[in-house]
């Protein structure tokens, strides 16, 4: 999982992450708790989270 430059730090992705693997300060950051399920990417309104490498 990768956060791209579209991230505005809205935090909506954190509401859907079942592993509590996203930290948002000025932008989202994916932690090592991530299991790459892709739920956060599906709900990101800015399409700022990319699944895969």
TrEMBL record:
Q: Please list the residue ranges annotated as the 4Fe-4S ferredoxin-type domain.
A: 1-22, 25-53
PROSITE patterns, alphabetically? 4FE4S_FER_1 (PS00198), 4FE4S_FER_2 (PS51379)
Question: Would you say which domain of life the source belongs to?
Answer: Archaea
What name is this protein filed under?
4Fe-4S binding protein
What species was this sequence derived from? Answer: Methanococcoides cohabitans
């Amino acid at each position: 999982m990768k956060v791209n430059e579209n991230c505005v730090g809205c935090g909506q992705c954190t509401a859907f992450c079942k592993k509590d693997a996203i930290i948002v300060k000025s932008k989202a950051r994916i932690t090592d708790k991530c299991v790459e399920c892709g739920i956060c990417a599906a709900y990101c309104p800015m399409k700022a989270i990319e699944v895969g490498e």
